[in-house]
């Protein structure tokens, strides 16, 4: 077992004062589209035993060998297609920063600081927590921005924060966020984003496909509540919008590796629609709080291409909540629900 190294007070100890910190956590993204940067990111991501549960003695040689030889080049090209050239960074980073900055404005006149950190890559969760502590926060609300719980996302984000806290002497108090798959504020934000995007269309889509990031079925069998949470989201959305399961089906994207993942898979599901007479579709991605590789490239490019090749006419990709005012309202509401008694 590794021995804990507990640091002396500087630089981890909270500065004197009594502020509360809000730490927004998202998945993370590479710093560049080049092979080395994408390899570094994927290596950290896919070495996480919450993400790949296989025995590391078996998985690491496969990962460091074939996977990290082939995948960084392919993924780097995909990142290149969606890269934010203006800021020279990945969209996930741009939107995550924007959410944090806009949320900070909502708390400007209160004793509350906001920081953002990534589970993989930069800025790290440790950097973000240190920033909060150095600004005087002795209490932190950790908000892993996943509406649907999964051990592969929510739990590993919280693990990483506590792993950092293991090394410091004067820990801040921590509150973590519960998943919010059918919270009416979240459902309303999704519904209004969809309605806004559809309002500008000359013809309405016949079907609005919901697409969530997939997960190995085995993880669900072992107790991950992710699938049930995705279903709660879609049932609440259908109710809110008066849609049937045919008009708003639930699908799962981004399968990785040979195992069985949650079904139906988005790409074949969408490609089969034109043969059923459905040529105008919209796709929305309620599980992603910000647009990223999986939404902008996998759906916006790959799935769109397959749909068109199968005879589709119009595919409208609904933006994620990103930094729109409803998204910041939602973040503020979630944060305030955790701040009770602290602020
Ligand atoms: C076994 C592998 C993976 C599991 C399990 C997994 C779960 C999972 N992921 C997200 C959200 C995102 N994933 C993203 C990218 C991504 N995901 C995997 C693999 C697993 N994800 C890989 C290898 C990648 C990297 C890209 C690629 O090479 O294809 C992203 C986008 C990141 C970005 O930079 O834009 C998000 C977001 C969830 C919600 C989830 C569990 C439900
Ligand atoms: Fe993923
Ligand atoms: Fe993908």
Description:
Belongs to the ferrochelatase family. It comes from Acetobacter conturbans. It catalyses: Fe-coproporphyrin III + 2 H(+) = coproporphyrin III + Fe(2+); heme b + 2 H(+) = protoporphyrin IX + Fe(2+). Catalyzes the ferrous insertion into protoporphyrin IX. With 343 residues, the chain is an alpha/beta fold. The protein folds into two domains: 19-179 and 326-339, Rossmann fold (3-Layer(aba) Sandwich), CATH 3.40.50.1400; 184-317, Rossmann fold, CATH 3.40.50.1400. It contains eleven helices and eight strands. It has helices at 35-46, 56-82, 91-106, 125-134, 151-165, 184-199, 217-221, 226-241, 266-271, 293-309, 325-339; strands at 19-28, 112-120, 137-144, 173-176, 207-213, 250-253, 280-284, 314-317. A four-stranded parallel sheet has the order 2-1-3-4, with helices on both faces. Strand 7 (280-284), helix 10 and strand 8 form a beta-alpha-beta unit. The radius of gyration is 21 Å and the shape is globular. The two termini are 39 Å apart. One fe (ii) ion binds next to helix 10.
Give the SSE layout.
Layout: E1 19-28, H1 35-46, H2 56-82, H3 91-106, E2 112-120, H4 125-134, E3 137-144, H5 151-165, E4 173-176, H6 184-199, E5 207-213, H7 217-221, H8 226-241, E6 250-253, H9 266-271, E7 280-284, H10 293-309, E8 314-317, H11 325-339
Parallel strand pairs: 1-2, 1-3, 3-4, 5-6, 5-7, 7-8
Helix pairs in contact: 1-2, 2-10, 3-11, 6-8, 6-11
One fe (ii) ion binds at residues 213, 254.
InterPro entries: Ferrochelatase (IPR001015), Ferrochelatase_AS (IPR019772), Ferrochelatase_C (IPR033644), Ferrochelatase_N (IPR033659)
EC number: 4.98.1.1
Protein name: Ferrochelatase
